[in-house]
Amino acid sequence: MEAEELQATARMARLSLSPAEEERLRGAVERMLVYCSHMASLPVDDLEPTTHALLSKNRLRADEGPAEQAAGVPAAAGPAAAAPTPVRLADALLANAPEREDRFILIPNVL
Q: Using an 8 Å Cβ cutoff, are 10 and 17 in contact?
C-alpha cells in the first residue's frame, strides 16, 4: 500500500497517525493484502458454500414456550393454542411500549 493511500484512508477514518504508527499500519495492511490475494488464488469452484466451517446445517431453536413466557403472553388452553405465533409475541411486546399508534411504537423526534 502506498503511503498516500494509507494517509487518505486514515483521513477518511479521521485518524491521526504518527510516522511510527503509519509504518506499522502499512506493514499490517500489506500482510492482509498478501493474505487476501493468496485466498483469492485458491481453487474453490468445487466447494459447497458454508456459513460455518464446522456446521453442516443451521442450528435453530424451537419457537415454543420460553419466548412466549418471557414476553408475558398468557398460555391458552389446548396444545395448538400454546404454540407461539408472531402476532401474539408482537402484541405482548407492543403492550410494553410507552406510546404507540396502532401497531407502531412512537419515538421522540431526534432532530
A: yes
